[in-house]
Structures are given as C-alpha cells and as structure tokens.
Design goal:
single chain; 42% strand; 29% helix; 142 residues; alpha+beta
Length: 142
C-alpha cells in the first residue's frame, strides 16, 4: 500500500542521482504542455533553466503555474509531484551559476563549467519555483 513520503524523504528522492523532472506548463489555450527538465532544489525552490523562446519558456512568461513530476519507474514505484508558481530571471551571472550547478548534477563536475557557459547566455531564463504543494508517495505497488 502506498505511503506518504516525509519532507526529508521527498527532498532526497527528487535530488537523487540524475532523475529528470517532467515539467507541466500551461499553454495559451489552457491545455498542458509537458517536457523533461534537469533541475535542482535550492531550499524550498525548484531551479532550472530553459530557452525563452521554447514552448515552456513562452508558457512560463505568460503563466507561471507549473507542476513537476519525478518518478521511479521500478517496483515498488515512487513518485513526487511539486506544484508552484515560477519566477523568471535573465540575469546572466545567476543563469551561468545555476546552469553550471545543474550541469554538474547531470553531467558531472568535470563538465559543469561547460554547461554553465552553454546555458548561461542571453535568450535563456533562470526559473525558480517556490514549491507550495507536494504530493509524494512511496511503494505505490506494495
């Protein structure tokens, strides 16, 4: 039987390894758009970057509501859904810093600066989402 994760458990779960998040944003017509993202937790904030001219970037500029799902697709199956509202920044120093930290998580420390330089550029958005709702379940199939 599924069990609710504690605050400490869901934070550890979403931060473990290189799990990607499936980010849902709201299109102009109100329909959902889902795309995978690399991310980090920074205190109570979810942090990621995206191109300003991508579908998710345009959606976030217009409507900051988001949901992010992170799951383990192996039995007994665990998942976390985080919801909140995005705040956007185009500050190049912040972008480069966070792009490098995110790159380190997913590609290793030795490539962090490469990803910071690649993704911390004009036309990118730094996205911070203060998490205001969490649904976190473990052992869904038990």
């Amino acid at each position: 039987m599924a069990q609710k994760m504690t605050d400490e458990e869901w934070r550890a779960f979403v931060s473990d390894g290189t799990r990607t998040g499936k980010l849902s944003t709201v299109r102009a017509d109100g329909s959902p758009h889902v795309a995978p993202v690399w991310f980090l937790l920074d205190g109570d904030d979810l942090v990621f970057n995206t191109g300003k001219d991508t579908v998710k970037g345009r959606n976030l500029v217009r409507d900051g509501r988001v949901a992010l799902c992170v799951d383990d697709d192996r039995p007994p199956f665990d998942f976390v859904v985080l919801q909140g509202r995005a705040r956007l920044s185009e500050d190049l120093g912040e972008l480069r810093h966070w792009a490098a930290r995110i790159g380190a998580r997913y590609m290793g420390e030795e490539r962090a600066e490469e990803f910071g330089a690649r993704n911390g550029v004009p036309g990118e958005l730094l996205v911070r989402v203060t998490v205001d709702k969490v649904l976190a379940q473990k052992s869904v199939a038990d």
